[in-house]
């Protein structure tokens, strides 16, 4: 009888932990979605709409110069490719050592 109660309590604790993890995952997912949508909206406004706004308008002080609209994504892409190449090379070297 004692083991049955212990098993039921353990199952209840696991369910509680799973619910907490699910809520944490939802919160992280919502936060990442919000950040991504904010960056997308900012970049879209910066690249597509801002060139049609007068240069002396106050909204220009909230954005970087137009040259950075290309420079930042290209730099991020190059950095991503470099890190990805380093990771693949590291994994290949590590797997080669395990075979030998």
From the spread of the alpha carbons, the general shape counts as flat
| Overall residue-averaged pLDDT value | 85
Structural class, by secondary structure, is: mainly alpha
Q: Summarize the helix and strand pattern as letters.
A: HH
Give the distance, in angstroms, between the N- and C-terminal Cα atoms. 54 Å
Percentage of residues in strands: under 5%
> What percent of the residues sit in helical stretches (DSSP H or I)?
over 70%
Largest sheet data: none
Total helical segments? 2
Instruction: Please give the number of β-strands.
Output: 0
Task: Indicate the radius of gyration in whole angstroms.
Answer: 25 Å
Could you list the spans in which at least 5 consecutive residues all have pLDDT below 50? none
Report on the structure:
The protein is mostly helical and 100 residues long. It is built from 2 helices and no strands. The protein has helices at 2-49, 67-99. The longest helix has 48 residues, at 2-49. The radius of gyration is 25 Å and the shape is flat. 0% of the residues are buried. The mean pLDDT is 85.
Defining key terms:
single chain, 100 residues, mainly alpha, 2 helices
Provide a short characterization of the protein structure.
The chain is mainly α and 100 residues long. 81% of the residues lie in helices and 0% in strands.
How would the blueprint of this fold be written?
Elements: H1 2-49, H2 67-99
